């Protein structure tokens, strides 16, 4: 005969991190999340968030868009800096803002969803589960912003896709890290390959993209919003 309490205690949990610069919001959200979401920790600044994500390796980060600290990039900066060091982590943006620029910026950085803070604890919990399962989750109004923004640059995306198709999957990984300013040694450590292999990949990337230096590579990637 099954024991419901025993089954509940052993149910799978979804490890999450809450990132927001308002302690009252963090506390309230933590209280309202459903029991299967296990909060590993909280952070209030860009630096705290990056360190927490890297150290705890959560499955989903509930991430405010506007955060103090870092280089002023807010939630998007957290994603760009933390994601390479926590490859299994996914990011769900939570914000009071429904401005198109905020939505598009954080999605381009790599967020898998964006919902407003008016959502209930149950809605946030459901969105976190869906993101964990591979879905992209947006509040209805915000989904339109994303479609409009990326549809408006369809030609640019097509051109970028054609250029990226010249690179292998590993070369694309190396390209993004180098363009973000990582040293060869840091890239090697992140991807678990040798420095020599990194050098080989960088040479191939520069040759295939017809670039002459890592500075040109960074400019190329920024222009195409790949960082």
Layout of secondary structure:
Layout: H1 4-9, E1 14-19, H2 23-32, E2 37-43, H3 46-56, E3 60-64, H4 74-82, E4 90-95, H5 100-109, E5 113-116, H6 121-132, E6 137-138, H7 140-152, H8 154-164, H9 169-179, H10 184-191, H11 195-209, H12 214-223
Description of the structure:
The protein has 227 residues and is α/β, with parallel strands linked by helices. It contains twelve helices and six strands. The protein has helices spanning 4-9, 23-32, 46-56, 74-82, 100-109, 121-132, 140-152, 154-164, 169-179, 184-191, 195-209, 214-223, and strands at 14-19, 37-43, 60-64, 90-95, 113-116, 137-138. A six-stranded parallel β-sheet has the order 2-1-3-4-5-6, sandwiched between helices. α3 (46-56) packs parallel to α4 and α9 crosses α12. Mean pLDDT is 84; it is low at 4-8.
